[in-house]
Fold:
Amino acid sequence: MQKSKTFFAIIAVSIVFFCGKVSVTPYSFPEMMYFPKVPVFASNPTTVEGADVGRYLFYDPILSSDSTISCSSCHNQQTAFTNSTAFSVGVNGGKTDRNALPLFNLAWHPYYFYDGRAKTLEDQISHPIKAKNEMNMQWDLILKKLNASKFYLKKFKTIYDAEKIDSTHVKNVIAQFLRTLISYQSKFDRIIAKKDKFNQEEFNGFGLVNNQIKGDCFHCHPSDGNGLMTKFAFSNNGLDSIYDADKYKDKGRGAITGNKSDNGKFKIPSLRNIALTAPYMHDGRFKTLEEVLDFYSTGVHTSANVDSKMGYAYQKGVKLTKEEKKDIVAFLNTLTDSVFINKKEFSNPFIK
Structure:
């Protein structure tokens, strides 16, 4: 079924190309061992030209009401496309309610945002654009700007053979660019490919992360058999002592599902590039990896809806030693993908 969908998606793109209506080239995703196959999105196949214009729009503040904020304002390539502050600043100094999630390996995600309120990347794009504390913009005003731009009209004409740009066009190309943001070239990946080796600290840390008694990280962040290093589930990891599920100030997933048992649950992020994506948790409360490990070591709280996988919540954590924490940080540093954060193809196209 996967191959069939891929075949028909490529044929569809090729047909419009050869009919002369548009000029697009199917995007060639990298070959990645240790990763699932890149999903096929037949309704919006990724093309070189689509991802290119999506990249321009990602970095262009034209999408915000005062033309000062772009997607990249909150998602910086050098920090794996997240922000280095707990909350991002939007137009007129407005602040977001949650920490910005990093942007990579998004093609595999079944939900977007910490509460999973968007099921597709195309849908996700409208949320920050319309949010008053982020871009504070409406689609009719965006389209007025874009359709007045010879630069964008020409690019969209090439892709869609349309005389006018519409919101679907915009969402599609930004989603295409975001799907190209694949991180798979860390030291850990080289080790898996037998092109590099752990040092002793890194090896110890890898063992601890995958140890059910000590690190106990692998239930939510599998590092064997899943190169994505997250199960994409929603979890309450015992950040606070809240015994009444209705008392969560930020209900997380529960605000979307309306299910009380989901209150206080948030999307589990990937461990990839984790050393770059501080601060941590949905509210950015931890500034360093050391603080995160201190929490899991001795600071876990019992609370309403706490994840059953937090098996040591009743003991206040897994009680890591100073050396064990040091070893785990050493392993986590092997997940940093320096190629990804420096790749020209993902950088600001307005800066030559």
Remarks:
- The beta strands are 234-235, 266-267.
- The chain has two domains: 2-183, 187-336.
